[in-house]
Design goal:
The chain is mostly helical. The chain has 4 helices and 4 strands, in the order αββααββα. The chain has one domain (12-181): Up-down Bundle (Fumarate Reductase Cytochrome B subunit). The strands form 2 sheets. The protein has a two-stranded antiparallel sheet with strand order 1-2. It is elongated and about 50 Å long.
Length: 188
């Protein structure tokens, strides 16, 4: 598999960034859902609520770093040509959804950081390195961060539904092997 993108498919680096972000976001959804449902003092698979919060926040910092690296890679590396099977409206939707997802992938961890810091919560990255406190305790700002985090989460679900739905429509209905451009171990 080539490291760089070709005219017809994404290269290994672009695929790595894509699937790494996807896996971290799945992790974030699962840990976020579980930790919000735990009662005080309750554990999940041996992890306390505090452990899950630390993991969730730490993974949020990691995903922000990966997304920023992914964005730099995307802007400095030529993209594959548009799939010839895409209609003009599908290209427009794809372009809009991709931009929207990038904005959400940045807003989600930033809003989580704002919610955490403005809420007066400190944490150590994976329990080891304390993050700098760039925002003082501020209840109003914490509320904005919390609501933003929640709303952006729903927006991600909607955008991912469009993103995945279009890919599946082409791959399964049109049978044009569209997903092979981004699947990790596929052949074109």
């Amino acid at each position: 598999m080539a490291l760089l993108n070709s005219a017809g498919r994404y290269g290994a680096v672009a695929k790595l960034f894509h699937w790494l972000v996807f896996l971290i976001f799945v992790n974030q959804y699962v840990t976020g859902s579980v930790m919000m449902r735990l009662d005080k003092g309750q554990a999940f698979l041996g992890f306390s609520g505090g452990d899950l919060y630390t993991w969730h926040k730490s993974a949020g910092v990691v995903v922000l770093a990966v997304v920023l690296l992914r964005l730099v890679w995307r802007k400095t590396t030529p993209l594959p040509d548009w799939a010839t099977t895409l209609e003009d409206w599908e290209r427009a939707v794809t372009k809009w959804v991709e931009r929207f997802l990038y904005a959400c992938m940045i807003l989600m961890p930033v809003s989580g950081y704002v919610f955490t810091m403005a809420g007066g919560y400190r944490f150590k990255l994976f329990g080891v390195v304390e993050l700098p406190v760039l925002i003082g305790k501020n209840a109003s700002l914490a509320a904005v961060g919390e609501w933003s985090h929640l709303i952006v989460g729903y927006m991600i679900v909607i955008a991912l539904t469009l993103h995945i739905g279009l890919g599946l429509k082409h791959h399964l209905v049109n049978k044009d092997r569209f997903l092979n451009r981004m699947l990790p171990f596929s052949k074109q």
